[in-house]
Amino acid sequence: MRRSHEPIFWSLFGAGGMLSALVGPALILITGVLAPLAIVLGPDALGYANMLVFVHHPLGKLAVLALISLFLYHGCHRMLHSLHDLGMHAGRGAAVFFYGFATAGSLVCAALLFTIGF
Amino acid sequence: MTDTTPTPAAAAPRTIEIECLRYDPEQDSAPHFQSWQVPFDDDTSVLQGLQYIKDHLDGSLTFRWSCRMAICGSCGKMINGVPQLSCHAFLRDYWPNKVRVEPLANFAIVRDLVVDQNEFLDKLESVQPWMQPCEKLNVADGPQRQTPAQLDQYYQFSQCINCLLCYAACPQVGLKPEFIGPAALALMHRYNADSRDRGWEARAEVANAEEGVWGCTLVGYCSEVCPKGVDPAHAINQNKVNSTMDYFGVRKLLAPKGGAR
Amino acid sequence: METINSDIVIVGGGGAGLRAAIAVQEADPRLKVALVSKVVPMRSHTVAAEGGSAGVIRDDDSLDNHFDDTVSGGDWLCDQDVVRYFVERCTEEMVRLEHWGCPWSRKDDGSINVRFFGGMKVQRTWFAADKTGFHMLHTLFQTSMQFPGIQRFDEFFVAELLVEDGRVQGVLAIEIATGKFFLFRAKAVILATGGAGRVYSQNTNAGIVTGDGMGLAYRHGVALRDMEFVQYHPTALPGTGILITEGCRGEGAILTNKNGYRYLQDYGLGPLDPWPRPKAMELGPRDRLSQAFWHEERKGNTIATRHGSAVNLDLRHLGAKKIHERLPLITEVAKTFAGIDPVHEPIPVRPAVHYTMGGIATNGRTETTLPGLYAAGECSSVGIHGANRLGSNSLSEIVVFGRAAGENAAAYVRTQSAAAPASLERQAQAAAARLEALHQHERGERVAVLREAMGECMEKNVGIYREESGLAEACSTLAELRTRWRAGIKLDDRSRAFNTEWLSAIELGSMLEVAETMAHSARERRESRGAHVRLDQYAERDDENFLVHTLAQRRGDDAPAITQQPVVITTSAPRTRSYGGAGTKAILT
Amino acid sequence: MSRYKPTLKTYRRPMAGWWTKNPFYVLYMIREGSAVLLAAYALVLLVGLARLAQGEAAYEAWRAALASPAAIAFHVVAAIVVAYHSVTWFGVMPKTAPKLPFPARLVTIGGIAAAVVVSIALVVVIAGATR
Ligand SMILES: Cc1cc2nc3c(=O)[nH]c(=O)nc-3n(C[C@H](O)[C@H](O)[C@H](O)COP(=O)(O)OP(=O)(O)OC[C@H]3O[C@@H](n4cnc5c(N)ncnc54)[C@H](O)[C@@H]3O)c2cc1C
Ligand code: SF4
Ligand code: F3S
Ligand code: FES
């Protein structure tokens, strides 16, 4: 039997799953509901200035990269397996597509964080 | 004290409809259902219902059974869509509705309620489920020591009766027939987790494969239906961690095994 | 017909068969073993054994003690040379199982824990919680997988032995899934087919325990020995016969009648110990306990349940913690099958047939009188159980004598050459034709009708107590049932694929013959000994005339010929069997 | 060991629609489906980051879009589904842990409690830091 390379992706999936389980619902509420509707938070909580300060800080950069990249890996991993669960055996191509997508997203994210500067 | 005087309700004869999936490879191209009315009592198992049919109504109805006490693992069926031991499911719990009995899901049907367990038997063997000690043991040296705490590490996983309910519960078994599956992987873990065993390396090829622990997507239904509390989902998924550590070459550092002596 | 060639065919994948297969491989890995079983090995009935397996291990115990308990438990009908061989090897086999991974229960320091068991006066019963047989069977099954020389034929029903030149040279089997016949050629055959408890209607045995191997050997002129000795287990659930292990009583459970009275003290099993206490009169031998029940029932002291009368097995004083820790399976069984939580209520129990002491007559080396044919395990009568088997001796027996059969057969086949295939083929064809005829039969009675008639006849006449009139009735009823079986069984199932109705008809044939040997052997034993107790003028043990084995030999369609065979007595002369205060003082720890 | 392997004519039942046949499977599919919303949310954030890099005007346009009813609805649904993911995640977490000396349920309860605490802390911190 061939050794599976799943440990790489499973680790990323697991990290994303853990992160999203801990902060996912709150973060979605904050950026998608509370901030836009200014509930609990101030109207400019996610304003341009605030966000710029945040992503200029190395820890802020790391947080953004971790969130976006790991969420993508987590999501793509599950979507790949769901295809199989639904009876669509797309084979290696599907794996390349999904993990490629998550990797590309992560790289774009890193590049953006870099362009925004320190 | 027990009051075993029959209550009027228990004494009244009741019947229930049992509907079985039937398939005769010599006659049929596809399975079909057939029903019977079966008298039952408060302690009549579904298996006893099937036996009643076979003895009195239709001798050709075919199913496996043996111990009728939930330990031999022969009599698993889909009962109203749920994998169960038919000797351990009771007609009283389904009445007055009918009860539908089908062969275990995810297996090919050989005849009526009998499924093909050949692939499973090969999978069971593929995990090398025998003791692989670090050195050859001599009977003259007597029994090895193993504390109750060490026993506890694997005891739960040694409870498997190979009833296949977990295979019928696991969609990955149906979707990917090569998947080694819950019971066999739990058995592998049973030996790996035994303080007397040193066989991790020998079994690693299977564990680390796509067909091994990585075939599981943690549906978790296997553990739900297991009649013996084996929790195969636990056995498999903690080995995803082991397999990952093995992949990155850190298993030996992080998971040293307690010795038997 | 497909032919399979091997050196040794082992019929039966229970504890005895698996141990034999491993022994052959350890003796000589070049030998090819065909392990043929009508169920996948881990479904074998060994799986149901709960209590434990005997083997001397404590400092306060000795081989002599185990020997004495076994011989007196067997009411001196044991072959003492064989018992000696047996007790010397039990512990070794338990250790071997430990090395193979059997999860024996342990003490806190990690050493093996042993428990009390009925008739064993010292703690020497190894146990794996209350699933000892399950763990032994799965350990043996899994261990056997590493030997490339063992080829398994799962779900193959062995229907005939093939004898050529006066020695066994193979078997004919049906591949159950397809109904196809297979000819297995071999230089030796080991029968390890288990007991025959299913000939009784109230029994603790699995559905597969139908005495097939006994029937096979018997039809080929091998005697069935001591068949009158059938053990009742005193504590089974009324109706289903599901066993409540003796381990319960080993842990301190007591038996009470409907007045809450520990009635065993009235039957010479006392004294009434202050309790709770680890070992009590409830641990007397099974036959005595079952008989006491019968008397209580007569006196009207039993409790009426929907499935017949019962007494109470009371565990409540042990407390929830100990019950859950030591007896988890029994707790589960009582809850599910009887709707009772033993922590809060006593469990209703009654005697049911449990074990066949007799079987295929072998010498101490597991050899039968038919060259090349060996027998081990419950299907055999190797000589250790005598008139009554002690609890936890039979799990030890299957590994000690399973191994012996494997080793002896391995040594034997090295001296033999294979048979001429043509004549074996002819024999196999003839046997297949007979089975085929059974399959094709369109008229006759249903399997269940004859089976139930047999079970009830045995229960009524060849039960806990026997007497001449009942035994005579049993003999004639069984002869009649055999005639009806020969006249034809009506099968609804015309398919060949997994035709279990056909197989039950074949099994029924064996069961009727086995039942007949039981009834006739019992009738000829005009004394009471061990599990065979008569109510007529033969209520006493009679060492003068009956300190002998009974042999039942087949005579075609006629009743079996019953003869006697001397018992081997080496060191222990017959004494009165006594337990409790009157017997050897129990060593309590 | 070798095992005699018969060739049998058997019937294999189709798998199509398997996940509709048992409520347990339906819940499993919902759990797995949560990943779609999570990934979509990651993309929303990524777009936000890109807009941030493009300057204030672009970023504010993105913020305005987030306030649209459709966006709000999406986020409400996503938050619920991802919350379901959280519960199931901690539910199965003990399965990946070694055998524990305490009841597995404690891991689940602890995980969910941690998620609740972290969530509240997140809101409080952001609210405090951006006041
Ligand atoms: C409920 C229960 C509890 C028990 N508890 C204890 C205990 O605590 N301690 C103890 O010492 N003993 C106990 N016993 C007794 C003991 O379990 C048995 O005597 C022993 O397991 C028998 O083992 P075996 O290998 O001889 O036969 P089995 O395990 O019965 O195996 C028989 C094998 O033969 C095969 N076979 C039979 N006929 C055919 C055929 N025609 N063709 C092919 N294969 C065939 C079967 O498939 C099976 O594999 C208990 C028995 C029962 C019923
Ligand atoms: S793990 Fe449980 S469900 Fe699966 S085969 Fe074993 S006992 Fe049966
Ligand atoms: S159901 Fe199947 S997917 Fe895994 S957790 Fe159990 S083996
Ligand atoms: S008949 Fe043995 S498990 Fe049901």
TrEMBL record, chain A:
Organism domain of life: Bacteria
Keywords annotated in UniProt: Cell membrane, Membrane, Transmembrane, Transmembrane helix
Segments passing through the bilayer: 12-39, 51-73, 94-116
InterPro entries hit by this protein: Fumarate_red_D, SQR/QFR_C/D
UniProt key word Disulfide bond: no
Descriptive protein name: Fumarate reductase subunit D
TrEMBL record, chain B:
Pathway membership: Carbohydrate metabolism; tricarboxylic acid cycle; fumarate from succinate (bacterial route): step 1/1
InterPro entries xrefs: 2Fe-2S_ferredoxin-like_sf (IPR036010), 2Fe-2S_ferredoxin-type (IPR001041), 2Fe2S_fd_BS (IPR006058), 4Fe4S_Fe-S-bd (IPR017896), 4Fe4S_Fe_S_CS (IPR017900), Beta-grasp_dom_sf (IPR012675), Helical_ferredxn (IPR009051), SDH/FRD_Iron-Sulfur (IPR050573)
EC number(s) reported in the record: 1.3.5.1
Annotated ranges, domain 4Fe-4S ferredoxin-type: 151-180
SUPFAM superfamilies: 2Fe-2S ferredoxin-like, alpha-helical ferredoxin
Keywords carried by this UniProt record: 2Fe-2S, 3Fe-4S, 4Fe-4S, Iron, Iron-sulfur, Metal-binding, Oxidoreductase, Tricarboxylic acid cycle
Keyword Metal-binding: yes
Cofactor(s), by name: [3Fe-4S] cluster; [2Fe-2S] cluster; [4Fe-4S] cluster
Residue intervals passing through the bilayer: none
NCBIfam families: dhsB, PRK05950.1, PRK12385.1
Family designation: Belongs to the succinate dehydrogenase/fumarate reductase iron-sulfur protein family.
Protein name according to UniProt: Succinate dehydrogenase iron-sulfur subunit
Organism name: Rubrivivax gelatinosus (Rhodocyclus gelatinosus)
Phylogenetic lineage: Bacteria, Pseudomonadati, Pseudomonadota, Betaproteobacteria, Burkholderiales
Automatic annotation (TrEMBL), chain C:
Domain FAD-dependent oxidoreductase 2 FAD-binding stretches: 7-395
Transport found in the keyword field: yes
EC supergroup of this enzyme: oxidoreductase
Matches recorded under Pfam families: FAD_binding_2, Succ_DH_flav_C
Keywords: Electron transport, FAD, Flavoprotein, Membrane, Oxidoreductase, Transport
EC number assigned by the record: 1.3.5.1
Source taxon at top rank: Bacteria
Location relative to the cell: Cell inner membrane
Occurrences of domain Fumarate reductase/succinate dehydrogenase flavoprotein-like C-terminal (ranges): 451-579
SUPFAM superfamilies per UniProt: FAD/NAD(P)-binding domain (SSF51905), Succinate dehydrogenase/fumarate reductase flavoprotein C-terminal domain (SSF46977), Succinate dehydrogenase/fumarate reductase flavoprotein, catalytic domain (SSF56425)
Broad class of the protein's primary localization: membrane
Needed cofactors: FAD
Signal peptide: none
Family statement: Belongs to the FAD-dependent oxidoreductase 2 family. FRD/SDH subfamily.
Protein name: succinate dehydrogenase
Species per Swiss-Prot/TrEMBL record: Rubrivivax gelatinosus (Rhodocyclus gelatinosus)
UniProtKB/TrEMBL annotation, chain D:
Keywords, comma-separated and alphabetical: Cell membrane, Membrane, Transmembrane, Transmembrane helix
Membrane-traversing stretches: 71-92, 104-129
Protein's recorded name: Fumarate reductase subunit C
Organism: Rubrivivax gelatinosus (Rhodocyclus gelatinosus)
